[in-house]
Amino acid sequence: MELFWYRRDLRAADNVGLAAASGAGDDPDRGPAAPVFVFDPNVLDHASDVRVRRLLDGLAALRDDYRERGSDLLVARGDPETVLPRLAAALDADRVVWNRDYSGLARERDAGVRRALDAVDVAREAHHDAVLHDPDAIRTNAGDPYSVYSYYWKKWTDREKADPAPVPTEAGLADTDRLADAADAVDGADASGAVADGGEAATLGAAVGDLPTPADLGFAEPDAAVGPAGTEAARERLDDFLDEAVFAYEAERDYPAREATSRLSAFFKYGEIGVREAYAATEEAMAEAESDSRPEDAPEQVEEFQQQLAWREFYTQVLFHNPEVVSENYKEYEEGIEWRDDPEEIAAWKRGETGYPIVDAGMRQLREEAFMHNRVRMIVASFLTKDLLADWRHGYDHFREHLADHDTANDNGGWQWAASTGTDAQPYFRIFNPMTQGERYDPDAEYITEYVPELRGLDADLIHEWHELSPTQRANAAPEYPSPIVDHSERREAALAMYKRARGEDPDD
C-alpha cells in the first residue's frame, strides 16, 4: 500500500506521482495507491471564497472519477505533518508519494512533511509533474536561471517533452474498505485527545469521499460563477479549442468579445488536466495544421499557444529561484518607486467605476465570473500602476482574492510585468492608453457593453470617446456611468516622472 498525497494535481490521468505509487509507472509491483487530500489550515490562510469553491468542485469531480474506478478519495483536515504520518500508519503504507509544488510556501510545507515522515521511518517520494520542464532544467549557458523569456523559449521548445503518464488500473487503487478503516483510525486518534503543538486538535477528522462545505472551512459561497471543474470538463474545453480556435489563436486571442482563448487556466491551476496530455494534444493539432486542410500560417498559430505553456513554466522557474518576488519587486529601482496609492482611486478600480469603459468591463467580469480575459488583465494592470500610480501589490492581492485561476507564479509575473518591476517586464515608458486599447481590441464595444450595462445602446464610437465628452454629453448619454476619475494624459506624464525619479534620473529630462 502507498499513500498518494494530492495538492495541485487533481486528476488520475497523466499524474506522474500517482502512476508511480499505483504501479502504473516503471515498477508494476508497487501499489495499490490510496488517494488522499488534506485541507491544510496554513494553505487555507492564503485562500479565498472563490478559490475554495473552485477547489471543492475539482475535488468532487476527482472523487467521482475514483468512484467510477472502484475506489474513493480519502479527505482529511489538519497539518499534513501530523495527518500524513497518521494516515500512513493507519494504511500500513510503505511510502507517501506526491508531486512537487514550486512556490516558497509549498516547499516549506513539503520540507516539514519530509521531516515528519523521516521521524516515523516512513519512506517518501516526490515527483516532477506540474510543468513539462523542471524549474532547474533550463538555464543559460553560464548556468543561471533565465530572466528573459525569448531566450528561455528557444531552449524550452527544443527540449524533448515527456509522454503523458499512464493511468492507474482499478487494481492499482486502494479499495473503499481500506480507506474507510484508515479514516476511522485517524478519527479515533483525534478522539483520544492527541493535540498539536499549539494546543488544538491536530486534525479535524478524516473521511472517505465526504467533502466539507466552504462554511466548514471558514469561507463563504462566492457571488461569482466559478465555472466547470474536473478532468472531463478540461478535456472537453481543450478539444473544443484545438478543434478550431487554436488555428487563429495569434490573430484572435487579444479580442475579449471573441471565443478565441483556451480558458484552460483554472484547469491548469488545480491540475485537473496534465500538462503532458495538453502538450501532446497541441502536437496533434500542429500535425493537422501542417496538412492541406488548414491555412498556411496555422502551424504558427498553434505554436503561439504552445508559447503560453512556456510562459507558464518561465514564471514558475522565476518564482522557484526568487520566492521573494511574491511580495518584493524582482527589479529594484535605485531610489525606490514612490507609489501614489490613493485609497479612493484604488477602490473605484476594484468596483469597475473608473470611467474608462474597457477597464471597468474587465473589473466587473472579474467580479461576476472569477475570470478576466488576458488582454484585459494587462489593460487593468497598466491602468492601476501607470494611471493610478498604485503599487502593483494592491492589484495582485485583489486578483488573488477574486480569480478562480489565481496562480502565484503567473499572476505575480503578470503584475510585475505591467508595473515594470518584473523579469523581462514592460519598459516603464510604454504605458497603455486605456481608450486606445478599448477601441483596438473591442471596436464594437461588445465586451464593454456585456459587463457595463450603463453603456448599452450607445454607439461604440461614443463609448470609445467617453474621456473626451463634456460632462453634459456624458450625463445625456449614460447618466449612471461615471466620468473618468483621472486624466490619462496627465497621469502618463506623472508616471514617467515617477519612474525616472526611481531610476535616479531627472524627471524633467
UniProtKB/TrEMBL annotation:
Domain Photolyase/cryptochrome alpha/beta: 1-132
Keywords: Chromophore, FAD, Flavoprotein, Lyase
GO BP annotation list: nucleobase-containing compound metabolic process; response to stress
One term of GO molecular function: FAD binding
InterPro entries according to UniProt: Crypto/Photolyase_FAD-like_sf (IPR036134), Crypto/Photolyase_N_sf (IPR036155), Cryptochr/Photolyase_FAD-bd (IPR005101), Cryptochrome/DNA_photolyase_1 (IPR002081), DNA_photolyase_1_CS_C (IPR018394), DNA_photolyase_N (IPR006050), Rossmann-like_a/b/a_fold (IPR014729)
SUPFAM superfamilies: Cryptochrome/photolyase FAD-binding domain, Cryptochrome/photolyase, N-terminal domain
Record-listed FAD binding positions: 249, 261-265, 305, 308-315, 405-407
Cofactor requirements of the protein: FAD
Positions bearing the site annotation: Electron transfer via tryptophanyl radical: W339, W392, W415
Keyword Flavoprotein: yes
Cofactor note: Binds 1 FAD per subunit.
Family: Belongs to the DNA photolyase family.
Protein name, UniProt field: Deoxyribodipyrimidine photo-lyase
Organism the protein comes from: Halorubrum salinarum
